[in-house]
Specification:
Blueprint lengths: L8 E10 L2 E11 L3 E5 L6 H8 L7 E6 L2 E2 L5 H7 L1 E4 L11 H9 L9 H7 L1 H5 L10 H13 L5 E5 L7 H16 L3 E5 L3 H7 L2 E6 L2 E7 L2 H4 L1 H8 L4 H5 L1
Parallel strand pairs: 3-8, 3-9, 6-7, 7-8
Antiparallel strand pairs: 1-2, 1-4, 4-5, 9-10
């Protein structure tokens, strides 16, 4: 929330889907300058929510407001300019472009702003070591760092990350967790969609559970992680502990 109590991101009655198939059903949530995680079983609409927030998928009803300004119905590039950046699932990098070239594409206009290519290299020193390497020759963790760094160059108010820890080693997840906390400390809000419950809880103090296209429950701290009964109820038969073993 800002000083007037207005949320940074406010989503009300959001509906979206594909053709006649509705995926998001009157979805509501809001967040301030914080890290919030969206968790839930596969097929609950988490990626659809990401695509709708950034304009890749048009909503059919409801509204999305960023700092009190409506962004639903706008083109993705307009939404990005208004302050929402996206780190998509699968990273979507260009295999033939180097790390430097990826960042250079978005570096124009970053002078005198918080996030520049140099600032990205400070946040992710490993990228600085690999700046001349092509995207296709980076490890999965390095690719994820680059995808986050690319989004940062938009100097947005909110970064939406879809499954950032997917397929990554624990040491790389540690780097991403630290990066998310650093961003929030710098005044950047982060909305994380995560299948990995442990990663979600470490990244975000507040977790929202999606069930059938709506927010069904909210938890804080590690309550969801330490309650197998809640995990079975909202996330399926397995528990986070069982998934790690």
């Amino acid at each position: 929330m800002n000083q007037t109590g207005e949320p940074l991101l406010d989503v009300r009655g959001l509906c979206a889907g594909y053709g006649a198939s509705m995926v998001l059903e009157k979805l509501d949530f809001s967040m301030g300058v914080e890290a919030v995680a969206i968790v839930g079983r596969n097929g609950m609409g988490k990626t659809t929510l990401c695509d709708t927030l950034v304009g890749f998928l048009p909503s059919s009803d409801g509204q999305i407001s960023l700092r009190g300004r409506r962004v639903d119905g706008l083109a993705p590039e307009r939404i990005a300019r208004m302050g929402i950046a996206y780190v998509p699932q699968g990273r979507r990098l260009f295999p033939s472009l180097t790390v430097d070239e990826h960042l250079a594409m978005l570096a124009r206009g970053t002078r005198n702003k918080r996030w520049t290519p140099e600032a990205v290299y400070e946040l992710f020193p490993r990228l600085a070591e690999r700046k001349r390497h092509s995207g296709g020759n980076l490890s999965g963790g390095e690719q994820q760092m680059l995808a986050v760094g690319r989004a940062l160059l938009l100097n947005a108010d909110l970064i939406v990350m879809d499954e950032p820890s997917e397929g990554l080693a624990p040491t790389i997840v540690d780097v991403l967790v630290d990066a998310v906390h650093h961003l929030v400390d710098e005044g950047v809000a982060v909305l994380v969609v995560e299948q990995n419950l442990r990663a979600a809880v470490r990244m975000a103090h507040r977790q929202l559970v999606m069930v059938s296209g709506a927010i069904e429950a909210q938890f804080a701290g590690d309550e969801l992680l330490t309650r197998p009964d809640l995990q079975r109820r909202y996330l399926g038969v397995g528990t986070a502990k069982e998934e790690i073993q």
